[in-house]
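Pilot study result, target chain (316 residues):
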Amino acid sequence: MKVLANDGISKSGILALEKGGFEVITTKVAQEQVANFVNENNVSVVLVRSATKVRKDIIDACPGLKIIGRGGVGMDNIDVDYAKSKGIHVINTPASSSESVAELVFAHLFSGVRFLHDSNRNMPLEGDTNFDGLKKAYANGIELRGKTLGIVGIGRIGQATAKMALGLGMKVIAADSFIPQVDVKVEFFDGQSITTTIVSQSLESVFKEADFITLHVPAQDGYIISEKELAIMKDGVGIVNCARGGVIDEVALVKALDRGKVLFAGLDVFENEPTPEMAILMNHKISLTPHIGAATGEAQDRIGTELASQIISLLS
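Predicted structure:
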């Protein structure tokens, strides 16, 4: 059987699938040509990340499709329920990229509190002529230790983020409609560990109490953070979104940044991907990455081998 990994798959995933008797195709097929390619090449499995969409039209057009796989967590680019109603298995890898995304959250947090995103823009331009001026401009850094991190969504990625925050000496609070409390185990290199319980509280209280806020939620019908929510946050709050675009009102966020209500934002995802608004891209108070939360070699290896394992289990 043939597997089309249209958004790529790790070498370890390819080897595992080939060992299981599958032929893996990594040719990048344009969105509008996916259905034709699947049918013409008798593809049984389509694997995607966030770029390729598998909607009703492709599902209807490809009667031979047996599995749709998402390398990652969110499956908002797949019509999951419809696919299942047609007898197609839909799989993903929710645990494989948690640490990678959590580390990116802290990359944005560290960047924001020490102005790295802005200094990295200005040092090449003014470092040799205005060194003392830049030194003064970036002199008011903030330590994360001792501060309160508010996590919205305390699932796998939220928990991985909590572990890193606890390791830094931060206080962690969380809001989650589905998880009332969770035991978070922080493990150290020498085999020792500590476990603490995080009890979910109201979203409003998290917004009011947190020095920094990070979002770990699926795609929503509306905004989780808009003008109303920004108004109740602490002055000088930092906000990071490495979850899904569209959960923050970007217009309201820019206004809050401009008036100093929000000290900085870190964004890996955007309302209008893959063409984010220029008001976001050009704002010197925003640390920016192009939706790369799970884009580490280690995570992609785990994603590839986990997808392969699920596919072999279902079709062998």
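One observation from the pilot: The chain has two domains: 2-94+297-315, 97-288. A full batch analysis is planned for the follow-on phase.
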